[in-house]
Structure formats: C-alpha cells, structure tokens
C-alpha cells in the first residue's frame, strides 16, 4: 500500500474538520489515509479523540449492509461510525459478528428484528 504524506496545511484542515464534527473514518476517506493516521495527526496536535458514535436509528441499515457481506470498516464508512462502534451496536442487537478477515453473503432476512 502506498504511503500518503500530508502537508502541514492539510493537517491543519484535517484538525479543523474534526473539531467541526467530522469522524475519523470520514477524514480518512477525504484525505486518502488510514483512520489511524488521522488519529495520529490529531494526537500530535493534542486534540482529544472522540469515541466513534453510532446513531442507533441506523441499526437496521448497518445490519443489512453487514449481512450483505460488507466489513465492519465498510459499514462504518457508510453510516459514519468507527468499526468498533458498529461491532458493538450490531452485537448488542443480536447480529452475529463474523471472524475477522472473512466476508460472507447471507440473506439480510436474518437481520435485526426482521
């Protein structure tokens, strides 16, 4: 994987967007870097990292996406939350989490409360 280095003005922009409410996942997508890289830049700038919030009203959407075969990271990118927040939300609603690194295409009918 190619390494993307951010210029200082890009990091300034990243920090500003984060302070305005953007998530690590959103910023990673915008700047073409890993979410951990975003977190590292924020930490270096002494910005407190927010916990990945999951909007409970999107649980059915997240479950359908996950059960269609998307990874937790991919679902998080679509619903604007971190993968761990997605994992916790899905698991707490009875969705069985696949072992890491695997994808399976199963019917969304097995989703939450269907």
Structure report:
It is elongated, with a radius of gyration of 16 Å. It folds into two domains: 8-44; 56-110, Arc Repressor Mutant, subunit A (Orthogonal Bundle), CATH 1.10.10. Helix 4 runs antiparallel to helix 5 (72-79). The protein contains six helices and no strands. The protein has helices at 8-19, 24-31, 35-44, 59-67, 72-79, 83-92. It is mostly helical.
CATH class of the largest domain: Mainly Alpha
Mean pLDDT: 83
| N-to-C series of helices and strands | HHHHHH
Radius of gyration over alpha carbons? 16 Å
Overall geometric form: elongated
Write a concise synopsis of the structure shown.
With 114 residues, this protein is mainly α. Helices cover 50% and strands 0% of the residues.
Q: What keywords describe this structure?
A:
0% strand, mainly alpha, 2 domains, 114 residues, single chain
Element layout with pairings:
Elements: H1 8-19, H2 24-31, H3 35-44, H4 59-67, H5 72-79, H6 83-92
Helix pairs in contact: 2-3, 4-5, 5-6
């Amino acid at each position: 994987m190619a390494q993307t280095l951010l210029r200082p003005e890009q990091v300034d922009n990243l920090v500003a967007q984060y302070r305005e409410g953007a998530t690590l996942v959103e910023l990673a997508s915008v700047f073409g870097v890993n979410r951990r890289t975003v977190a590292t830049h924020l930490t270096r700038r002494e910005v407190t990292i927010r916990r990945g919030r999951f909007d409970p009203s999107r649980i059915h959407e997240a479950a359908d996406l996950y059960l269609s075969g998307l990874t937790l990271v991919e679902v998080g990118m679509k619903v604007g939350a971190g993968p761990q927040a997605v994992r916790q939300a899905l698991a707490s609603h009875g969705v069985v989490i696949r072992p890491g690194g695997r994808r399976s295409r199963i019917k969304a009918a097995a989703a939450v409360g269907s």
